[in-house]
Write a structure and sequence with these properties.
86 residues, 0% strand
Length: 86
C-alpha cells in the first residue's frame, strides 16, 4: 500500500481530519441517544393505548409536503382501483 498521500498531509490537515472524525463520532452517539428516546416515547404511547404503527405513519406523512402527499394518495387510489382492491 502506498503511504505517500498520508505522508504528504500537513499537520493542519491531519488535525482537521481528527476534528472531523471526532465530530462525526459525537453526532453518531447523539443520534443513538435520540433514537433511544424516540423508542421510549413510542413505548409510552403504546402503553397509553395508541397504535404505534399508525403513529409512525402519521409522523412519516407529516414530513411530506401536502401537495406531494395528495398526489401520492391519488396515485395509490388509482392503482388500487386498477387492481380491483378499492
Amino acid at each position: 500500500m502506498d503511504d505517500a498521500p498520508i505522508e504528504n498531509l500537513t499537520e493542519a490537515t491531519r488535525e482537521k481530519l481528527r476534528q472531523t472524525v471526532a465530530k462525526i463520532e459525537r453526532l453518531e452517539e447523539e443520534k443513538k441517544e435520540v433514537a433511544e428516546q424516540i423508542k421510549e416515547i413510542y413505548a409510552e404511547a403504546k402503553a397509553f393505548g395508541f397504535d404505534t404503527k399508525a403513529l409512525r405513519q402519521v409522523i412519516k406523512l407529516r414530513k411530506i409536503d401536502k401537495a406531494d402527499r395528495e398526489e401520492a394518495e391519488m396515485m395509490l387510489e388509482t392503482y388500487l382501483i386498477a387492481l380491483g382492491e378499492a
